[in-house]
Design goal:
- The protein is of the alpha+beta class.
- The chain is built from 6 helices and 8 strands, in the order H-E-E-E-H-H-E-E-E-H-H-E-E-H.
- The strands form 2 sheets. The chain has a 6-stranded antiparallel beta sheet with strand order 3-2-1-6-5-4. The protein has a two-stranded parallel ribbon with strand order 7-8.
Length: 221
C-alpha cells in the first residue's frame, strides 16, 4: 500500500515541472542575509525571507501550487504522522536539517486548497544568557532538584531560546542526565558534563507521557 500523499489543489491543468531542488533553494535563500529569521513559501508569491521583521522576495518568479507541494513533500519526507496530520487536520509541524547550513522548525498548512510553508531558522549555536539579555536570577533554575518550571509567553517571545540557554548551562555546569521531549526537536546539544538525550514526538516516541516515563530508565515491574 502506498504512503499517504500531500493534498494537491484540485485542477484540471497538467502539473508544471518542478525546476529546482529544495535544499539548493533553501541554501540560496539563507545566503541573502545572516539575520534571516523565517522563510515563506506561498503560491502566487516568490520565496520570501523575513529580515528584521520585513519580508523580502528571493527568486525571479512566483511559486505555483505544485511548487509548494513539492517543497512540502521534500521537507516532510517519510514522516507518516506529519502527512496524516496535514491530510486530516490541515497542518503539520516538522524539523528539517540542511547539512552544513542550518536547522529549521517547519509548519506546513493548507490554504485555499494548496500548500503554504513557514520555516523558522534555528541558530546552529545555542544562545547564552548574555546574548539573550536574560536576568541573572534565572540561572537559579539550574540548581533546582524538584518541581516544575513553566516558561510561557506568546509566539516569538523567546521561549525556545530561553529553554535552550538553561539546558546548555545545566549541560556545562552539572553532571546529570538531561532528557528533552520535543515536537519537533529544535536546538541540538552535544554531550558535555551531562549526557543529553533528545526525543522527538512521533519519530522517537508516540506521546509525551511515554517519552518521560520513569525518566527513560528501565522499568522493574
Amino acid at each position: 500500500m502506498s504512503s499517504p500523499s500531500i493534498p494537491a489543489q484540485s485542477t484540471a491543468a497538467a502539473r508544471a515541472p518542478v525546476p529546482f531542488s529544495t535544499p539548493a533553494l533553501l541554501a540560496a535563500m539563507l545566503h541573502k542575509s545572516a539575520k534571516i529569521s523565517d522563510l515563506f513559501f506561498s503560491p502566487g508569491k516568490p520565496p520570501m525571507v523575513e529580515i528584521n521583521g520585513r519580508l523580502t522576495p528571493i527568486g525571479p518568479r512566483a511559486l505555483t501550487p505544485d511548487d509548494t507541494r513539492h517543497i512540502a513533500s521534500e521537507l516532510i519526507g517519510d514522516n507518516k504522522n506529519a502527512l496524516d496530520n496535514l491530510r486530516e487536520q490541515g497542518s503539520c509541524d516538522v524539523s528539517y536539517s540542511l547539512p552544513g547550513a542550518s536547522r529549521f522548525r517547519v509548519n506546513v498548512f493548507m490554504q485555499r486548497g494548496s500548500c503554504a510553508i513557514v520555516m523558522r531558522v534555528i541558530p546552529s549555536k545555542v544562545p547564552g544568557f548574555e546574548e539573550l539579555n536574560l536576568p541573572a536570577e534565572l540561572q537559579q533554575i539550574v540548581g533546582l532538584r524538584n518541581g516544575i518550571v513553566l516558561v510561557t509567553g506568546p509566539a516569538g517571545s523567546g521561549k525556545s531560546s530561553t529553554l535552550a540557554a538553561i539546558i546548555d548551562l545545566i549541560n556545562k555546569t552539572l553532571a546529570v542526565h538531561i532528557l528533552t521531549i520535543e515536537d519537533p526537536i529544535e536546538f541540538l546539544y552535544a554531550h558535555r558534563n551531562c549526557i543529553v538525550h533528545q526525543r522527538e514526538l512521533h519519530s522517537d516516541t508516540t506521546t509525551f507521557a511515554l517519552a518521560g516515563r520513569r525518566d527513560a530508565r528501565p522499568r522493574d515491574d
